[in-house]
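Researcher: Next sequence.
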Amino acid sequence: MEKEKKIGIIICHRYHRCAGGKCLKVVIGTHPIPQKYFLTHSKLHTWDSPGWQEIIQPTLATEEIRLSYN
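Model: Next structure:
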């Protein structure tokens, strides 16, 4: 039997009444990451691990493209 794992969900203020369903159900890779999200998550060090770097790589695009998705 696998050990029980605890997870936490950080709820952004944009959807402060949401339980994470709006963001966590979005399929990775459908569009570039908006620049404002890129900056926020960079400050929070959300994507610092090698695993996250691999996941977000296809959606990083260029800063110019990320800005167009703000």
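Model: The chain has a mean pLDDT of 79. The radius of gyration is 14 Å.
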